[in-house]
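Exercise: predict the fold of this chain.
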Amino acid sequence: MAIIRVDFNKVREERAGRGEVIDLDAVRRSGRMLREGLIAPACEETERELAGEHAAEPIKSLEDIDKVSRYLRGQGRWRDNMLFIVGINFGLRVSDLLSLRFADLINEDFAFRERFPIFEKKTRNTRKVKKNRYVTVNRAVIEAVTEFLEHTPGVKLSDYMFRSQSNNSKGANKPMSRQAADEMLKGVARELGLGNKMATHSLRKTFAYHQMVMSGNDPRKLLLLQKMFGHSSAAQTLDYIGITGEEIDEAYRRLNLGSRRYNYLVDGRIEECDAMLG
């Protein structure tokens, strides 16, 4: 269990340091800001015992996805951009992602494969029926890999795609560690001021989240993701990719029972109506 303490002065200082300005007029228009003088500032520290949150969240904004890739490419970090793009398009666990070699994606005649098999590490010892997962190589991955190769001479098909750049592994054909990948992603999120909790698992969750959103929340896609991820239920899959939390938030926001303006079902549509209050 975690104890959450909020230092609002520190929050304001951090936001100011990032050049963020709160639009007070917009907050007032939203109906969520109290009139001055209705309540006094806190005179003691407040705290509430909370369960620990998941360490990683999907990147739900397409704009943020583009921002991360542009940032990495702008810094000439071609390997890191390739890791990011491949990760969010393949949806593999980080252990399988970091084990990829260029030969998995590219034939000996130097043409990209349509798809390739992978025997996932985590499930190979748990599933009764041993089965490969087939991953399709899409245009985004081809672009990121090609861009990496154009800026990195001397690469071989047998090389790991995400080679370690540490001093201990310099010159050796070894994949980067999970810790190094995690620190890279957390660093990018910090540098760009992204609000989501970024970690290696964010790549897999981002893949699943956008699969659902782009399908229009098609139940068949949900069942496909459930099977792909080996989850015991569709509810577990929705919770894993952050859809459940969004729906719960929306359920709270749209109820508004007893409000002077509230949502009401009219001819099968939810509309905002004036309450009949005296």
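Check your answer against the key: The CA atoms of residues 125 and 181 lie 25 Å apart.
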